[in-house]
Design goal:
Blueprint (H helix, E strand, L loop, with lengths): L13 H10 L6 H20 L6 H8 L13 H9 L4 E4 L3 H6 L8 E6 L2 E8 L2 E4 L8 E3 L1 H13 L3 E6 L6 H6 L13 H12 L4 H9 L10 H49 L7 H5 L2 H29 L4 H5 L6 H25 L1
Antiparallel strand pairs: 1-6, 2-3, 2-6, 3-4, 4-5
Helix pairs in contact: 2-4, 9-10, 10-14, 12-14
Amino acid sequence: MESIFHERQEGSLCAQHCLNNLLQGEYFSPVELSSIAQQLDEEERMRMAEGGVSSEEYRTFLQQPSVNMDDSGFFSIQVISNALKVWGLELILFNSPEYQRLGIDPINEKSFICNYKEHWFTVRKLGKQWFNLNSLLMGPELISDTYLALFLAQLQQEGYSIFVVKGDLPDCEADQLLQMIRVQQMQRPKLIGEETAQARDQRLPRSDVDQAIEINHPFDGTGMLDEDEENFQRALALSRQEIDMEDEEADLRRAIQLSMQGSRRSEFSESLLQNAPQLPHTSQTDSLSSEELRRRRQAYFEKQQQQLQQQDQTRNVCDKPSVTDAVSGGDMSEEDMLQAAMNMSLESVKNHLDTEEEK
């Protein structure tokens, strides 16, 4: 849509932008429109003077400011209408009874001029497509044929006055090009104020949640996030923070549990060492041969090993692993820890006996 002429808003010169966007070129300047307004003021003064220059109405008229323009750059509908007469164009009120009786479908017209209070803008057909050429937009806005009637009805509902432009508009490059091709618009152009607001928001510091939202849903230029999507992303970021906190608490509880298990295991080993049967080192021990001592020790450990195996078999039959245990990755139960501690204590006793035998 680069070929479409579109003037953006400057000051209050919306009437100038409206005319130039309609005619698709820099046809009018503020000086030229001011000249038309002054001419209209002079014509009105002459009509008032016909009633007498000394009349109260004439003196009151001279004291009043111009109704056709002001210092801000505003121009009246009379100025716009007279400017279009130069090109053989005429304005007809869209919602007037005379026009409504014609029953013309808006899609069959060529252009409209819309006014609300002191703002003017053009809606024009270029080629086979309609465009909103409002100077408050950053660029032309494509309007589908099916949406045109709804768009005009919405403007009327909001208080706009709409005028149909009758006559042949001057030729322009955009109209010729769009007669051959159709354009598509992926994103509606922003208002000029929206650009300023977004630039200001980008300078403001962002929270961690906002940054998380941007990471999970980066802005790619295809459109702003709607409210539901933004709320969802914010909730997702908060939930992830809560999950991270829960994971940290779970890790802390697991570390405390392992520490307590290690402490109980150490205490249990010391208890077994203290209560384990000590082979006497008296003269009775001296009287036993080394071979006899080795056989007694071997028999003792074989007996202990058989008892442990029987306990394991009984526990395996009675206590089948649950799905939760399987998923948890093999955490040691209390009986497993006791069994491991007993094996460690028996190994310690065996090493102690071996050491004594060597002595």
